């Protein structure tokens, strides 16, 4: 299922993709009405509330594989 969001290289992110921010690699999954990466909601913009970051901007992330074809080292 497509999330409708793109990573920093412009590739469309799908549920099950493995994304990285350069340090952490984690899978994208659907949870209670939103897509989640590393415990944070993902969006195509910076989501915040009173200075606290509630979501992860997908333009900070890069697809490195998916859960079906990716072997973590």
Descriptive notes:
The chain is an all-beta fold and 73 residues long. It is 0% helix and 53% strand. Strand 5 (34-37) and strand 6 (40-43) form a beta hairpin. The chain is globular, with a radius of gyration of 12 Å. The N and C termini lie far apart (26 Å).
Name the features.
mainly beta, 6-stranded mixed β-sheet, globular, two-stranded antiparallel ribbon, 0% helix, 73 residues
Order of helices and strands: EEEEEEEEEE
Shape: globular
Strand order of the largest sheet: 9-6-5-4-3-10
Beta percentage is: over 45%
How many strands, which pairing sense, and closed or not: the largest β-sheet? 6 strands, mixed
**Rg measurement, Å:** 12 Å
- Bin the helical content: under 10%
Number of helical segments with 4 or more residues: 0
Unreliable spans are none
Overall pLDDT confidence: 81
Could you outline the blueprint of secondary structure elements for this entry?
Elements: E1 2-6, E2 12-14, E3 17-20, E4 25-31, E5 34-37, E6 40-43, E7 48-49, E8 52-53, E9 55-57, E10 62-66
Parallel strand pairs: 6-9
Antiparallel strand pairs: 1-2, 3-4, 3-10, 4-5, 5-6, 7-8
Brief overview, please?
The chain is mostly beta strands and 73 residues long. It contains no helices and ten strands. It starts with a strand and ends in a 7-residue tail after the last strand.
